[in-house]
Structures are given as structure tokens and as C-alpha cells.
């Protein structure tokens, strides 16, 4: 099953692929012909949240795509350090790395335990650093590559006057780590452009409801469909670095700015063009200048 075969012959490692955004990216990339190595802490059920790697791989295969499940606990240094090599061995190489996995434990700074701060930095900066570092030589041997980091709109500075959300706090450490991964993305893009390895970041323009984020999103809050972010991810992982690298992209703004057709996760259907809601961060409007 290939919608257009944009990623035919490519091998993609997607972390945090048992549910949510990671599963959606894995499904869409497989629909475009990629062999997806889907990774998370375990292949079967491991916690109280719905979704497993086995389900992700089964879904992809039922739709005619190719996927491999590879369990790895990214908080375990040995498993983390060996993941990229194991994925490349299992699949026969590596072209695309999607650093999606993470944990979010929101807390105001004053009462935040240092353990939670350390885990936040580990998941959103150290782990992408380690996996990217391991992936670079593998991509270089194949003559091209793509690294995609998952960002967050919270990386943007709070608007003034401060909104109730910002005054309530809780996302400061998380947002700081996401701002750091954006700067890491831009710097690594400059380092690797000559190697034809693209490095980009993608984030929701507003919020996407997933099993991991649901507890932080108020009931009734208008979230956006995941397909817009996934289509942006595909666009950032299918164009040579000389044409598209160092982008800090957002799910609704990027497709609108670049005139992308947004497809369903199986690649067979179409979604309407994105509409930027009034509550989107005004700092994102610069992306629309590319139109």
C-alpha cells in the first residue's frame, strides 16, 4: 500500500510509536512506502495508557505497509545507546529518525522535584541528542538522511499581557526544554547540510489530544486533528537538505504556507486546508509569509 510512494525504499525509526503522534507518523510514513521501525518501552501493554507497539505494527500491516516493532526503554542508558544500531540492523539501514518519545509532568517551578526536571531535560534534549548522534554516520553512508524532532508551541515566549494559562504555570521547564530542542535542531541542521542530512522540528500549532496529553487539556478545549502535523512531518522528511532544513514548523501554519495537500493517515483520503484559529500564538504568523 503506497499512496504516492514518497518514502519508497526509505527506513524510518519512530520513537514513542505505540500511540498518539508517534503512531500517526509511523502509519503515514508507512503509507508512503517507508519501512517503519516503531519503538516504545515494550511491544505489549506496559502501563495504564491505551496503545501498544504490537497494535501499531498490526495497523500498518493491515493497510499494506511494512513495520517492525522494537522495544526500548529510552530511560535505560544501555537500551537508549543501542537503539539506533539495533534498528538499522533489523531493517537494513536508516534514513529517517523521528524523535517523538517523551514524558510530560507539568509543575510550577517552586514545587517541582529535581527528579522531574532532570527527566524532562533527559527526554526532550538528551535522548534526541544521543539518538541523533548515533544516526548521523548511518545516514552519511547512505548519502542522505532526515532527523525530525517533536517541538511544542510552548517553546514560544508567553504573550503579554500574560494569559491565565501562563500565570497558572506548570509548563515552564517543559517549554524550556522544547525551546532548547528547537535551537539544537537549527544548529545541527547547519552542521549536517553539507552531508545532505536534513534536521527539522515540528510542533502542533495549538494542541493535539493524545493519550499522553489528554490529562492536561481541559474538557471542551478545541484541539486540532493530528493529520496536519503528520503531513508536515512527511514534508520535512522527504525533501533534500539543500531545499528544506533547519525549519521550526507548526502543524497548521506550515501546510497552509506551503500549499500542502493534507491526507488521512492511510494516505487515501483528503482533509480540508487548515484554518488558523484565533487562539493560535501570534508569534507563529511569520510562517505564513512563505506563501
Automatic annotation (TrEMBL):
PANTHER family xref list: 3-OXOACYL-(ACYL-CARRIER-PROTEIN) REDUCTASE, 3-OXOACYL-[ACYL-CARRIER-PROTEIN] REDUCTASE FABG
Stretches of the chain forming a coiled coil according to its record: none
Protein name, as recorded: Oxidoreductase
Any Pfam family the entry gives: adh_short
Family: Belongs to the short-chain dehydrogenases/reductases (SDR) family.
SUPFAM superfamilies: NAD(P)-binding Rossmann-fold domains
GO biological process entries: monocarboxylic acid metabolic process
Annotated source species: Cupriavidus lacunae
Domain of life, source organism: Bacteria
InterPro entries reported for this sequence: NAD(P)-bd_dom_sf (IPR036291), Sc_DH/Rdtase_CS (IPR020904), SDR (IPR050259), SDR_fam (IPR002347)
Amino acid at each position: 500500500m503506497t499512496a504516492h510512494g514518497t518514502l519508497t525504499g526509505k527506513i524510518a525509526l519512530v520513537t514513542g510509536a505505540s500511540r498518539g503522534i508517534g503512531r500517526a507518523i509511523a502509519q503515514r510514513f508507512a503509507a508512503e512506502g517507508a519501512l517503519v521501525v516503531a519503538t516504545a518501552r515494550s511491544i505489549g501493554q506496559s502501563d495504564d495508557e491505551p496503545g501498544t507497539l504490537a497494535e501499531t505494527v498490526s495497523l500498518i500491516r493491515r493497510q499494506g505497509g511494512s513495520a517492525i516493532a522494537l522495544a526500548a526503554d529510552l530511560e535505560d542508558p544501555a537500551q537508549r545507546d543501542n537503539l539506533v544500531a539495533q534498528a538499522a540492523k533489523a531493517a537494513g539501514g536508516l534514513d529517517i529518525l523521528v524523535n517523538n518519545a517523551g514524558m510530560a509532568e507539568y509543575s510550577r517551578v517552586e514545587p517541582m522535584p529535581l527528579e522531574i526536571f532532570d527527566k524532562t531535560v533527559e527526554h526532550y534534549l538528551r535522548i534526541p541528542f544521543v539518538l541523533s548522534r548515533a544516526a548521523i554516520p548511518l545516514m552519511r553512508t547512505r548519502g542522505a538522511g532526515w532527523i525530525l524532532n517533536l517541538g511544542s508551541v510552548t517553546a514560544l515566549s508567553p504573550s503579554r499581557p500574560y494569559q491565565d494559562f501562563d500565570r497558572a504555570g506548570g509548563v515552564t521547564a517543559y517549554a524550556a526544554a522544547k525551546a532548547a530542542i528547537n535551537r539544537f535542531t537549527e544548529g545541527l541542521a547547519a552542521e549536517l547540510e553539507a552531508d545532505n542530512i536534513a534536521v527539522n522540528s515540528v510542533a502542533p500549532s495549538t494542541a493535539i489530544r493524545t493519550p499522553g496529553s489528554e490529562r492536561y487539556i481541559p474538557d471542551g478545549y478545541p484541539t486540532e486533528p493530528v493529520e496536519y502535523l503528520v503531513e508536515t512531518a512527511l514534508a520535512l522528511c522527504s525533501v533534500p537538505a539543500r531545499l528544506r532544513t533547519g525549519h521550526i514548523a507548526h502543524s497548521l501554519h506550515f501546510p497552509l504556507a506551503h500549499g500542502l495537500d493534507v491526507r488521512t493517515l492511510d494516505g487515501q483520503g483528503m482533509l480540508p486546508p487548515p484554518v488558523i484559529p484565533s487562539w493560535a500564538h501570534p508569534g507563529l504568523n511569520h510562517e505564513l509569509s512563505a506563501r
